[in-house]
């Protein structure tokens, strides 16, 4: 078992006359360093958002200098699943969610081929997509029961508040402001606050919309347990969680499911097997090898993946 040594740990060892040599210390891999930096940025974002609630101002330099590098490093150096697992919400969902949506959006932005300048706008906008919630009363924001209709109407205004805060912040792109405004819009006009459709929604906002829902539903919350990521992908893919941009969602689903190839899974009928091939027409229904039998989930509609077991 490994343990990250803190300064306090080292002081205790020195007090007890214990000296470490090179064989006692295992250097962190670049991936672990990146994920560690990402984890530490959650606390940074918590302080930043508390400052925003108190002052109404966005400390953009702190975000660029302390948060952005951790997200960029993690999306460049970490594999898909370690990144997603590290971002699953613990007891700090509100702040972890902002980092997670920033990281997932940045990763997805690379997958769809965004140039570096747009990736930067996307990542900052994704980190700040919920910044308008700092103007929502904390009694509503922290409520564990279902919101009343009146409370939900107030909650929905976080999109307008966020847009206003970002567009008036010198040094931030108007497209980052649009992300805050539009990340709850849907392709068919069923979203809010403006019920925009299709091309009326900025492309970057469409990326964040997918990342936002994916992370929210794959995280434990006070009022419900997390749903397995592949189940959320399936529900998003068939449209039961809203109408998202089909091409972006196809890319997102295919890349995550491809990272599952080689993993052992348990199926809803009790059988176990290895994911061997992703179906290009429906990535959420892969080909599974169980002993000498191949199970094509695209043709076995009553069978689903129950859990990943290795």
TrEMBL record:
Pfam families: HD_5. The keyword Transmembrane does not apply. Its EC number is 3.1.4.-. Coiled coil: none annotated. The keyword ATP-binding does not apply. Residues 72-268 form the HD-GYP domain. It is an enzyme of class 3 (hydrolase). GO terms for molecular function: hydrolase activity. This is HD-GYP domain-containing protein. Keywords: Hydrolase. SMART domains: HDc (SM00471).
């Amino acid at each position: 078992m490994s343990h990250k040594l803190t300064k306090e740990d080292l002081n205790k060892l020195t007090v007890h006359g214990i000296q470490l040599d090179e064989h006692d210390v295992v250097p962190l891999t670049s991936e672990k360093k990146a994920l560690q930096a990402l984890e530490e940025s959650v606390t940074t974002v918590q302080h930043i958002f508390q400052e925003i609630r108190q002052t109404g101002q966005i400390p953009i330099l702190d975000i660029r200098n302390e948060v952005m590098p951790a997200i960029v490093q993690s999306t460049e150096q970490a594999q898909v699943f370690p990144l997603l697992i590290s971002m699953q919400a613990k007891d700090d969902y509100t702040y972890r969610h902002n980092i997670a949506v920033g990281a997932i959006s940045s990763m997805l932005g690379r997958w769809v081929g965004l140039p570096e300048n747009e990736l930067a706008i996307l990542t900052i906008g994704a980190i700040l997509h919920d910044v308008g919630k700092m103007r929502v009363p904390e009694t509503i924001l922290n409520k564990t029961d279902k919101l009343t209709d009146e409370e939900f109407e107030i909650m929905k205004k976080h999109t307008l508040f966020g847009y206003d805060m970002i567009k008036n912040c010198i040094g931030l792109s108007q497209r980052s402001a649009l992300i805050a405004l539009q990340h709850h819009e849907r392709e068919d006009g069923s979203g809010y606050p403006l019920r925009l459709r299709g091309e009326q929604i900025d492309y970057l906002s469409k990326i964040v919309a997918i990342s936002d829902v994916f992370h929210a539903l794959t995280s434990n919350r006070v009022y419900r347990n997390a749903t397995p990521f592949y189940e959320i992908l399936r529900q998003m893919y068939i449209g039961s969680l809203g109408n998202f941009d089909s091409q972006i969602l196809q890319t997102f689903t295919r890349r995550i499911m491809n990272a599952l190839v080689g993993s052992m899974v348990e199926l809803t009928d009790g059988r176990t097997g290895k994911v061997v091939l992703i179906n290009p027409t429906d990535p959420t229904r892969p080909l599974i090898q169980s002993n000498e039998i191949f199970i094509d989930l695209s043709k076995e509609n009553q069978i689903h993946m129950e859990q990943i077991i290795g």
